Amino acid sequence: MTRPVLLSALLLAGIAATGAGNGAWAQSSGGARALAPGVKVEVAPAPGSGSAPAAGKVDETALRYYARIGDGERLEAEIARLRALDPGWEPPKDLFAPQPTTPGVDETPFWNLLSAGKVAEARAAIAEQRRKSPSWQPSDKLLQELDTAESAGRIRSASDTRRWQEVVDAAAAHPEAVACNRLDNAWRLAEAYAELKQADRAFDTYRTIVSTCPKAKERRDTIFKASRYLSPDQLRELTALGATANPAKGEDYSTVRTAEAELETGRLLERLGAASSGAKPGALSAADLSRIQGIVRDKQDADGAIALGWYFQKQKNFAEAQSWFSQANGWAPSDKSAEGLVLAYNGLGEKAQARAAAAPWKGKSSRIDQALKAVDPPRGAGGGRSGPQGPSELDRALARQDFAECLSIIRSSIAKSGPTAALLQQRGWCLLEMKRPSEAEAAFAEAQAMAAREPAKGGQSAGAGGRTPAAAGLPQKATAAQENAYGQAVARLATGDTVGLTRDLPRANMTPAQKAEIRASLMATEANRALEDKRYNDVLRLLDARKELTPEPRNLGILRGWALYNLMRFDEAYAQFKSVDDRLSTEESREGVTITWKTIYHDW
Amino acid sequence: MPETPISGSPISGTARIGRRRAALLSVLAATTLLTSGCAGWVRDNLTQSPTPWRRVQPAALPVTLPDSRDFPIVAARMRDTGAVYKSYIVVLGNPTVLPGENRLTIDVQTLPDSLFGALVQPPRVFPVPLYTMETLLATTKREFPEMTVKVADAARRNRYGDYDYVTAQDGVNSCVLAWQLITDHKRMLPERIEAVRLEYRACGVGSNIRAMLAPFDGLSLTLPETVLEAQDLGGM
């Protein structure tokens, strides 16, 4: 990958404070040019080159170091920087030839430490060397790079701990630390301004980045970063600037231009989601709705169609909901879209259609099995009610995904006519949805006990000792006992009881599909834990084993990427993040791609 | 002490051989330990990480709660973080249809019992101060979405001193979130216990905040070591 030569020579507007606590961009001296009011960009020298070397004498230390380690991009940038300092200077012809050790001390070990981010160790090694050779002086370039790396570290650390003013102060003290080739720090500075409620400065910082850093991808990522803090108008301005200002050869800025539209779609979908969940029912205007429908259709966005489906389902516009869920299922069949379809058909009273929509996923997806309960409500494992046909109050609550109402209805039903195993089991599912897993587990256990007491009916076994329907190779349909055991396992997963669940799973009365699902979830939980514990080989081992049971979802794909990254398998990590990002680009996947890329190409 | 060699003495010869053998064994052991890194060493010491939660019987909890019809103990869990922290969650019944579990959490911070333990300590499992206005706001937003939240003006007292709390209400239900940090070594805490942190979250039907706080007001710590109550509770 090549980097435009200019890149390393662009200093992101000096941040020298213009007063106490004032973190405005520096009013740079000669060589600075204004890109926007109050924002200046220094064209030269490059990061770490605070003072110009004496005329006729160019410090080639860094140049030779980059040549020795084969970092072509930095080498190219350093050549450009030195030429800018001294137009008559030419790169030495023996740049790639093995060099005799410079008189005095070979600085390679210090540069190596610096490259590895071990700044304190580099300082210590230099001090030790100076103790051994008092007459030796480290090169200016090395000292400047150390200063810059320390400042960058200060910015990162202050930002990680949300000490925003310190971020601004550290950047002001050392503007080189927020150059284009340390874009992450520039983002952190902008974020600090935003968090300090200095919106104008945050905007100026983002604006400087998108108009000076030449890479289209970096400009685009900056716009996504800025979207958290800036108004739609400001984002529009930023996008326009990013797509046109200071274009570099070979860069395609059309992706910058599309960022705004993608953000807008994201915002609309978010509002749609809020409206669907009932958080802000009136948050979406007719114009917004029509716009988002157009976008979803154009992009054949299945997730967007599902969001629209739930929006209309919530409005009880079942016909429109059915249409969107069908559309989603057509574009990308999934149990999520089928679930919506089942409930939408059910809302329309078309139970046969609902069952048909569920058929491909029945017994394979707990989501679908749950939705089918709204179509064919459980009658109780041992007889139970033989109620009237048509959706009951409870069915309607489930179709609306109104789980609080589900609990109310079950409570009054139990108060009126006593508990049944089916009611208790349904209570368990609703409690799980309400993030009350301990009570859910108790409800499933109670349902289990009650089912064991109720007389068995039909082909379903009622108790823990009931027969399994795996006979004769028929597809497994979970019995009431198995459903209860499965519910308890899901609840235990939610409470974090992974050790106990792993121990009990082999003996649990569940269908093989249910066991595989729980086992896969356990492995995912353990993989997450392993990542937190920095046991990266374990993460991969668990994810590989899980992948044999079920396809890997994108969040675990990202987890895999970080495990590879931390094992320093950067190429594999990059390929992993890229493959996730290429399918659907999100902030997490973009972050993985960017960080891995920067690590591989030493582009911090 | 410098050795005085006594050549020719069989006893001293045996002693010397013994010492040399011991030295050799020490070197071998040290070499084995150093070179065993290839197969027997991992980068991080996981003894400082929290263990997974495990279920415990209510009787094994270091707390007793007053009997409550609305807030019975549904489940209890515990975990360790290093040798220093023990954390417990007591899940209580939730008579409402609101999301989220009612619970009492207890974190006990003990002092390390060895020099190594003092040098290698896990990060603290609870922040001090327990809350800032910002973190409290974020927590109440998460715990009590769409409810009207109010920070109590005055602290309340239970057996272990003052505690702070917030209330949250909607048309039908009320919730409380109370928190307390016990660090009084003069009277309450034994030498080995550095701090105890309590947090209590309960939602109930109606608007009787005192009834919701009753389990927290009446709880009694039953740690293996003696924890004394605060004085002058005014008849509590």
UniProtKB/TrEMBL annotation, chain A:
Keywords from the UniProt entry: Signal
Region annotated Disordered sits at 374-393, 445-479
Question: InterPro entries of this UniProt entry?
Answer: TPR-like_helical_dom_sf
Tell me the first and last residues of the signal peptide: 1-26
The protein's name in its UniProt record: Tetratricopeptide repeat protein
TrEMBL record, chain B:
Tell me the protein's name: Cellulose biosynthesis protein BcsN
Q: What InterPro entries does the record point to?
A: CBP_BcsN
